[in-house]
Amino acid sequence: MNGYNNMVIIKTVYQFTTPLHELSVWLTPSNFSHVLSHDCHSSTKGDVIAIDGKTVRGSYDKNKKRGAIHMVSAFCAANDVVIGQVKTAEKSNEITAIPELLKLLDISGCLVRIDAMGCQKKIAQEILNGNGDYLLAVKGNQKRLEQAFDDIFDLGDLQSENTYGTQEQSHGRLETRLHKVSHDIDALGDIALEWPGITTLGYVVSFRKEGDKPSTQPSVRYYISSAKLSAEELAHAAREHWSIEVKLHWKLDVALREDACRIRRGDAAENFSKIRHIALNLLNSDKSFKAGIKRKQKRAGRSESYLAQVLTGQDVS
User: What separation in angstroms does the CA of 100 have from each of 69, 103, 107, 123?
Assistant: First the structure.
């Protein structure tokens, strides 16, 4: 299988008489990683790439005392596609998996957005080595950096010209977010020297109001970035990260029922996770049938012409 290129693996899977869950046991995960990161979809310059992890809850094996696998994915928010995915090693976490994922991706000219778990100096350097920029959330796992932000942040600064505000109303809640950036890196003191390429300090303050109740106490989130962002660009990039939860993880659980899947023998759980990502990419890319993922799945199962159209990425009139 190592010599297969482009979409040959996926088309071959479609043609196999072997049940897919059996096929996934002996296929190596690297084959699917290659297809997913190099042949299915790619990002374009200026895109925001969100990186986050998700546990495949049904993949645990109680008899073998093996826990559920955890997959880390890279999601291009602008195109709604997964561009790469790796599994975290046993007894490890996302900190070690993210650098391996970055090596699979072409992030040149892109802004890579990672939550606090990925706020690590080595990860920041890895992104810069790939000619990309980082936007990292700052929380308690970087105590000195978080304390430096606490010392210099003042709510009164939100009245400055470098502030950008947004409002979002959903499910009876009104959330107001104020975004501010500063390019005065010296304000961090010597800590700034520890973070390669740091150019922007970002602050996001959120106020939430539910119904007629008064607004809750504001929540404050801190960010560092190697890109020279405006407050509006920070607002866009910070919000794009949530798309991986809504447009990827939610669809995997609700439409593809990933957490309910109990396939777990050998590498099958990891392979099946990657197959779901490829399938989701293909279904999201098809614009000829305006429907949700579940309805597209049903149509592909009932119509060979539509299935062929989805697999080849070509609209059929």
Answer: 16, 5, 13, 10
Distance CA 182, CA 199 (A): 9
CA atoms within 13 A on the CB side of 124: 23
**216 found inside a domain:** no
* Tens digits of residue pLDDT in 149-190: 999 988 877 777 678 999 888 777 888 899 999 999 999 999
User: Distance (Å, rounded) from C-alpha 25 to C-alpha 264?
Assistant: 9
Domain range holding 13?
Answer: 8-159+230-312
Decide if 247 is inside a domain.
yes
Model confidence, pTM: 0.81
| 253-282: average pLDDT | 86
**DSSP bridge partners of 50:** 75, 113
Residue 149 resides in a domain: yes
Domain total for the chain? 1
Residue 169 backbone phi and psi in degrees, to 5: -115, 125
Q: Do 86 and 113 contact (CB within 8 A), yes or no?
A: no
Nearest CA to 2 out of 22, 24, 42, 29 is that of 29
Of 151, 152, 180, nearest to 165 (Cα)?
180
- For 10-55, how does the pLDDT look when each residue is reduced to its tens digit (9 = 90+)? 444 444 434 555 544 445 566 555 555 554 455 666 789 999 999 8
Assess if residue 281 is contained within a domain: yes
Three-state SS at 275: helix
**Residue 4 pLDDT more than 50?**
no
Give the residue ranges of DSSP H helices in 191-267: 231-240, 243, 250-254
